[in-house]
Amino acid sequence: MNGSGRRAFLGQSGGGPRDFGLLLLRVAVGASLFLKHGWEKVSGFSRMAQHFPDPIHIGPVPSLAIALAGDAICSLLVILGFFTRPAAFFAACNIAVAWTLVHHFEFLGHGPGPDHGELCVLYIAVFLALTIAGPGRYSLDRG
Questions:
Q1: What's this model's pTM, rounded to 2 decimal places?
Q2: Taking 50 as the threshold, does the pLDDT of residue 101 lie above it?
Q3: 104 CB-near residues (< 8 Å, 6+ apart)
Q4: Whether the predicted pLDDT of 114 surpasses 90
Q5: Of 94, 86, 73, 83, whose CA–CA distance to 30 is shortest?
Q6: Degrees, nearest 5: CA angle 117-74-64
Q7: How far is CA 101 from CA 18, 93, 106, in A?
Q8: What is the pLDDT of residue 8?
Q9: Are 80 and 106 spatial neighbours (Cβ–Cβ below 8 Å)?
């Protein structure tokens, strides 16, 4: 590693390990949520709208639109580090609603069908951590 790269990594030129860590966390978790859950809602909205769960009793189409906002739009905002705190909070709330009202707090596959409980808990924890910590220096928010 050259001198300037080493100084940047060690936090001696404005960006440090914390900022690199937040960047890595934002990109990895945001991309994971978008690629697995966001893109399927964007690309299959009309197909999914007919049978999407309605956990808060507003109808399947509005429920799907809220889930799309959390899983697709907010995950992309988190990746970019743009409106990071509100996007991360919205994503965490959306996932919490899915985990509690759709997956019924199932964890580690103890339910009758496929389960995402442990992944829900990880997503919630990471998005809440990003809500508190912010996006870091390497973001469009810069803070």
A1: 0.83
A2: yes
A3: 111
A4: no
A5: 73
A6: 65
A7: 35, 12, 10
A8: 45
A9: no
DSSP string, 5-27: HHHHHTTSSS--HHHHHHHHHHH
Residue-level pLDDT at 10: 45
**How many residues are there in the chain?**
143
What the block records as the tokens of 74 is 């907010």
* Other Cβ atoms within 10 Å of 84 Cβ, number: 27
Per-domain boundaries in the chain: 18-133
Q: Which helix (H) or strand (E) holds 30?
A: helix 17-33
Could you write out the DSSP letters of every residue in 92-140?
HHHHHHIIIIISTT--TT-SSS---HHHHHHHHHHHHHHHHH---SSSS
Q: Pick the closest to residue 81 from 124, 8, 20, 35 (CA basis).
A: 20
